Amino acid sequence: MTDDSDEEMLSWDESVFRNEHVFEIDYVPESFLHRESQMESLKYALKPAVRGSRPLNVMAQGPPGTGKTTSVQIIFDELRAQTDVKAIQVNCQVNSTRYAVFSQLFEGVFEYEPPSSGISFKKLFSQVTDKLVEDDEVLVVALDDVNYLFYESEASDTLYSMLRAHEEQGGAKIGVILVSSDLDLDILEELDGRVQSVFRPEDVYFPNYGESEIAEILGERANRGFHDDVITTSVLDRIAELTAEQGGDLRVGIDLLRRAGLKAEMRASRHVELQDVEEAYETSKYVHLSRRLQELSDSETALVRVIANHAGKQAGEIYDIFNDETDLGYTRYSEIINKLDQLGIIDASYTDVDGRGRSRELNLNYDAEAVTDRL
Q1: What are the angstrom distances between the C-alpha of 228 and each of 16, 91, 217, 271, 298?
Q2: pTM (2 decimals)?
């Protein structure tokens, strides 16, 4: 006679997951829920490209984890499959200079990488635009996480080159979608006047998902990713509630589903329990922090570590420690502070210092141990 408890235990070659890839950050869902109006707005803006004309430019903004990148991915996949439009998505966290962006465009247009050295931006630009004219193709570029171009003061030059391409090379047709999760960044205000005059984008806003919408979306992921009966409605509702507490960032909820499943497997259980969710949440709630820290340069990481170890000190005191470790000058130090502040990793607010006027005080926006554990 088989013990009922044994039937509830996973054997060594079994898993709670039907398809674990469903919970990866780059997974594009078959059912994309609650973004119908945004998808229609994007299609409206890009429709002229299908007819061989320059599309409307778009500014797609909204909090993190609200479907902006996925919306563009789905639309671009449809364009590539059904039309002759060239659609290229550029990750500006990784490619945060004008040259790096156009290197990605070169690779997308020619389907091989540009030379690793010895080619000027002017030549790179002209080869891309010449190819578009030669093939009579329209190019649509999505600058994902475009806020990183602003942090590096590269946004205006990059956009100017794209939006004025038809003047540099007659017949070159390029449309731009700017995707940003930084709601404190006033994109139009920060662009040079020469870019503002030609950009004139359509606005597409992606609001936070409501808790019921989060539950429905995560339920769809769970159905595709887990075997039947692995997770109950009450457990899913708790995951949706915790996700809503993190600003409705779906990446938190999706990561939480996966980690809770792994916790269940560690117990050799066929079912995800509330205990698994609560334990996994201690890691998943920092998923956006982890992604931001991973994208930092060595010098930026060094400054975060210094601030974590000396929180609350004035900017001048932090600089002395940072300079001892990196030999970087104050100008670069100030640029890094501004970037970390814009990313929301630190708070760099001005305070009055007795006898010394105003100075910035640097503090982490997260628990110091959580930050140092992820560096």
Answers
A1: 9, 36, 17, 10, 45
A2: 0.89
